[in-house]
Amino acid sequence: MKRITSILIVLLTCSSSLMAQEYAKYTTKKAKDTVFAEPQKTPVVNEKAWVEPQEVKNKETKSFGDFQAIMNKAGEQTIQNNYRQALKFYTQALEVSPESESWRVYISRATSYYQLKEYKKAIKEYTLMIEDSNTPQKEVAYAYLMRANVVAETGTKKEKANACDDLKKAKELGIDDMVIKTQQVYALKCR
């Protein structure tokens, strides 16, 4: 019985694979009776043309790979509270980062500067992140919120007025009121 079942499975598999090789006739709606031949494979004229884009892609991937490896090292230092060492790695990462990933370095450096109580530098990094056109909107909103938070915590009266503007912009970009209520900037009572 097992032998017959095995033979049936083999026959079904073979017949279905043979059927998969058959092509349907192609028709169009414009000319109902028109039948087209099966599509043919396009011969590769110059194999080198197909290799070059792959080589370029590998260079980009390698650069991103280097960037990611350095960011990982920096992240390890951040976890261990070695913020100075993390900043060195983040700066190296910025040198090799693809343009589309620079914002990740800015936010990471801003966080490290904040932890080191170097608030002016943290504000500068958040500003770079906001100005970077590759920063996703959600992250721009976060940068506005965090910049406002740092200023609310450390800034002068005039700077705190600017923090309210940043908070307003963060709200416009989608930061939830519940998140804002957990931040230092909430104490400013911005209207």
Q: What this model shows, in words?
A:
This protein is mostly helical. Among the domains are: 54-118; 136-191. It is 69% helix and 0% strand. The chain has helices at 2-20, 47-79, 83-96, 102-115, 119-131, 137-154, 157-172, 177-180. This is Tetratricopeptide repeat protein.
Topology:
Blueprint: H1 2-20, H2 47-79, H3 83-96, H4 102-115, H5 119-131, H6 137-154, H7 157-172, H8 177-180
Helix pairs in contact: 2-3, 3-4, 4-5, 5-6, 6-7
Looking at this protein, list some descriptive labels:
191 residues, mainly alpha, 8 helices, 69% helix, TPR-like_helical_dom_sf, signal, TPR_rpt, TPR repeat, Tetratricopeptide repeat protein
TL;DR?
The chain is mainly α and about 190 residues long.
What is the count of helical runs? 8
Measured by DSSP, the beta-strand proportion falls in under 5%
Overall 3D shape:
globular
Instruction: Determine the mean pLDDT.
Output: 76
Question: What class, by secondary structure content?
Answer: mainly alpha
Protein name: Tetratricopeptide repeat protein
Signal peptide: 1-20
InterPro entries: TPR-like_helical_dom_sf, TPR_rpt
TPR repeats: 67-100
